Each structure stands twice: as C-alpha cells, then as structure tokens.
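Fold this sequence, please.
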Amino acid sequence: MRTIWVAGVLVSAILLLGGCADVAFKRGGSSSEFDAARQTCHRTTNDDDAYRACLSRAGWSVVAEANQPVPVEPSVSVPTVPAPIQAAQPPAPASTPAPAPVQDPKSGLETISVKNWWRIGVGVSNLDASVDTCVAQLGPAHQPAPGYHTVTRSLAACLKTEGWHAGN
C-alpha cells in the first residue's frame, strides 16, 4: 500500500511540475504538503532555479531531470557481497567424507527487510523480470517471498545493479 502511495506522490510531483522535467520528493511528505509548498514557491518567484531552491528549503528533494534517481536514503544498506569463503582443508582420506565448506556469515544468504522497491520509469512487471534474472544468476536459494519484502543480501545487491532502489 505504501509503495502505491509513494508512487502516487512521485507521479503527482511530475504532473504538477508539468513543463519542467523536475521530480520532487520528501520522505513522509503528502501531496497536500507538496501542493502548499509549490503554491508558496510559485508566489515568490518565476525563476526555475529559485523555485527549486524554495522547494528545497521547504524540505523537498528536487531532481532537475526525471531520468536521474530521486535522492532517498534507503532503509537498508546493500553492500557488495564477496564470494563465500571456504576454509582450507587438507585432502580427506577416500573413506572419510569431505567436510562441508564453512560459509562466511556475510555470504549473502541472510535476509533483510525492504518496505518497497522503486525505479523511475518502470512498473512492477519490470521488478518481476529483474527478480527472475537475479534468481537465475544467484540460484534458487535467493528466491524471495511474494511481495519482495524479505530478500537475501545478494538478491538486493543484484537488484541494485539492475537499477532498483530499496526504500522504507
């Protein structure tokens, strides 16, 4: 539900800014708050740069081109995940089974919570396709639960390379 709300705010911001290709975003900001800030800023100036600066002073992040990502602090840090580290073991005798490899606790299989995923200019079907691509690369152990709110670190890192951002 929050994903729909955030998308609605972004679309409203794009539509309200009309001719400028600007996008405005404020974490926790509502469309009525944006409308009030927009009206106030339009009353004070007709200059685009001064208008953007006015919105910025009101707490709105403004991106001048719609193809740039909106600056949002993700709720989850998604580090680059190194390959699993295996402990060096001497060769085992033929009659003794080989010990299981030791997995680094940061192997990328631990799960993280994500409230929503966003990428400007694409819809949820693109997220489905990106998840499918990443799971094909990483393996079935990284298949997320429906809704993609609980994912592995490696899947989150892969989605980041596909242009997706984790939000809260």
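The first strand starts at residue 23 and ends at 25. Residues 58 and 98 are 63 Å apart (CA to CA).
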